[in-house]
Each structure stands twice: as structure tokens, then as C-alpha cells.
Amino acid sequence: MAACVIPSEPKQNETAEKIIERIIENILTVSGAVTSIVILLIIVFLFKEGFGLFNSPAVESGYSFCVNESNPVNYLSPYQIKEIYDSEIENWKEIGGKDEEIELFRFEEIFSHYSEEEM
């Protein structure tokens, strides 16, 4: 009886598949490492910024909140003060005062706005 020989697939395909699998595994490994490094950098940045909040004053130096005693506004909430400094509120009428513009300036600039006689 004659023996039948079935040709097997060439081993080159198996070798190429293993090389491709190794490349994909290495890409995934490197991707995981890069992702971990990025996450660590984000955490360090957030902690750095968070600690900076505790070291900075609530209001920048050089700002004072002064209101003329003839102004009918007796109380401002912290939110209203923030809105004034952010220029969201620009007129005293918006917070119960006279229909006059709110003037914002640093203490160092007071003499450029008012003379000594006016103060």
C-alpha cells in the first residue's frame, strides 16, 4: 500500500504570527507604562495645585473693599464681592445701592482717582 503524505503549512507563517504577537504585546506593555506615568504626573500636579491653594491668601494683596459711608448698601455676601471683583456686577443699583458705577482700583492707585482734598 502506498503512503499518503499531506504537505504541512510552511513554518514561516507560524514565525510571522509569533513576531506580530510579540510586537503587539510589547506595544501594549509600553502603552500601559506610559499611561501609568501620565496618571502619576496628573496626581503630582493636582497635589501641587491643591497645596498651593492653602498657601495663597484669599484676596490678593493690594486690594481693599471700601465703601463710602453715604452708600445705602450695608451688607455684601462673599459671592457679591466676588462678582464685583470679577466685573459681573458693575453698578451699585444691582445690589441695592444708588445708580452709580462701581470703581475698582488698588490702594496704590487711589491718588490717581481722588485728590487729597476729596479723601
Structure description:
By secondary structure, this protein is an all-alpha fold. Helices cover 48% and strands 0% of the residues. The termini are far apart.
Summarize the structure.
The protein is mostly helical and 119 residues long. The protein has helices spanning 11-55, 78-85, 110-113. The protein is rod-shaped and about 100 Å long.
Explain the layout of strands and helices.
Layout: H1 11-55, H2 78-85, H3 110-113
Instruction: Report the total helices.
Output: 3
Biggest sheet statistics: none
Radius of gyration: 36 Å
What characteristic shape results from the CA principal axes?
A: rod-shaped
Query: Taking all residues together, what is the mean pLDDT?
Result: 80
Decide which structural class fits the backbone: mainly alpha
Query: What's the multimeric state?
Result: single chain
Pattern of helices and strands = HHH
Number of strands: 0
Alpha-carbon distance between the two ends: 123 Å
Task: Assign a percent range to the helix content.
Answer: 40-55%
As a percent range, the share of strand residues is: under 5%
Low-confidence stretches are: none
Key traits:
3 helices, 119 residues, mainly alpha
